[in-house]
Backbone:
């Protein structure tokens, strides 16, 4: 039996093929698998079978590190200007922001991009 056949057997035996996308999404949530709302039906079935979400690389994550590092290193000067989750001084707080917010932060601090870039990981 090939790998594809065994995966198809699992999908059939678990009754996943009969489930719609919403049902699969709810099954993932109930199992604590943290599905992404944009996951396709096939991705949700794979998530249920494999049990983990494939790691996704976000190009803006290094800029999140850069923004947080820059702000925290310049906290005394910037603390009264910060109106976002970074006010908590948690270096991972930018990871709770949407990509568009991170992009806006970078655009509004264009004059500091060279310095922010130094803090990227």
Residues:
């Amino acid at each position: 039996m090939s790998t594809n056949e065994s995966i198809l057997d699992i999908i059939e035996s678990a009754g996943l093929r009969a489930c719609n996308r919403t049902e699969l999404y709810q099954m993932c949530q109930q199992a604590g698998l943290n599905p992404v709302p944009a996951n396709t039906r096939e991705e949700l079935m794979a998530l249920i079978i494999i049990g983990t979400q494939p790691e996704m690389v976000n190009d803006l994550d290094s800029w999140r590190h850069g923004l947080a590092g820059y702000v925290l290193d310049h906290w005394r000067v910037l603390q009264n200007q910060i109106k976002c989750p970074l006010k908590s001084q948690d270096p991972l707080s930018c990871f709770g922001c949407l990509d568009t917010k991170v992009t806006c932060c970078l655009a509004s601090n264009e004059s500091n991009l060279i310095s922010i870039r130094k803090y990227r990981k």
In short: The chain has two domains: 3-50, 61-117. The chain is about 50% helix and 0% strand. The two ends are 44 Å apart (CA to CA).
